[in-house]
Amino acid sequence: MTAYLVRNVSVVGGAPTDLLIRDGAVAETGAGLTAPDATVIDATGLVALPGLVDLHTHLREPGREDAETVESGSRAAALGGYTAVCAMANTSPVADTAGVVEQVWRLGREAGLVDVQPIGAVTVGLAGERLAELGAMADSAARVRIFSDDGHCVADPKLMRRALEYVKAFDGVIAQHAEEPRLTEGAQMHEGEVSTRLGLTGWPAVAEEAIIARDVLLAEHVGSRLHICHVSTAGSVEVLRHAKARGVKVTAEVTPHHLLLTDEKAATYDPVYKVNPPLRTASDVTALRAALADGVIDIIATDHAPHAVEDKECEWAYARPGMLGLETALSIALDVLGPQWDLIAERMSRAPARIAGLDGHGVDPAPGVPANLTLVDPAARRVIEPAELASRSRNTPYARMTLPGRIVATFLRGEPTVLDGKAVK
Ligand SMILES: [Zn+2]
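Above are the sequence and the zinc ion SMILES. Below is the predicted complex in structure-token form.
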């Protein structure tokens, strides 16, 4: 195993130091380290972060390997600075059995680019009718701890209660896609001034807020852990603030796109901006940014949702919702938060690793710590070219935008997955 001596790097924004990576771990830190056998990386001007952790990734395998595979999604993740991703269950077949979650977990290990932690479905086939084999998935080799019907809401309150009760035994988490389905039938975009102007059926904020309000009360009643996927409205932030003040064990995520883009984008009728939950208003964006800063929202999660060209480059009404996210998330975070490195490390690595219970991830580089880390050039600016992305799909809403920051290197247990900004394998 090659040793690496990273020279003059700022660890999470601190004063420049050297980092020696050996045998899968950070062996030493300090100024002027020597290691004759090590490959030297001049990291002057670069920032080292604990490897990023994505709690919400769609890898599409099994079933839609034309849109993404575990391997291509893992490569996109590594290039985005990630060392671990949680793979959502809405594959085909659905990841609702020990067999499917073990398949995804094994494919992740074979790719060897990031740790792929499967998320199990809450209900059989995501149909919302009966609980999936949560215990069998938890006991499987994949050791599933997060369960979600993402893409669909667990709308039945009795099923949601039972799911929360069930996972309590092994400290599991239910990750809810909060969308009251009766309120969003036929919805094409956020319900508001823009949808009225365009004559498109709206997805009202209350459809999200009502489910979050119900579920924080259920989680409080049961005493279980609840996670809210892709929070998108100012009202949801207020419900979460109230729940957290009461001590409810709820955590929440926001996506990069909900931190940057608004429903005005729908006026272009470019389906690349169609996403679920939809892009909201500028005042929602402001509230989400404030909640991310003050901790009401715990993490940034990408909701990386690759789609094949025929599913995305069509009429708005027929296009699938979803956007790519893994290769641009850190740049969006830098754009939105500025160089607040400790906050970025907390929201994109430490907190998601804690929620998912991923040992060895989300820990700042220090002697003895597994070398899961990424090196960022904050001064670089890059133009996003969809054709250059490692994802098999091209549905990025940031095409030809200039974004700050570039991932220079990523290490998974001491082995580089990215060097000089390029995937190693
Ligand atoms: Zn979702």
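The chain has a mean pLDDT of 98.
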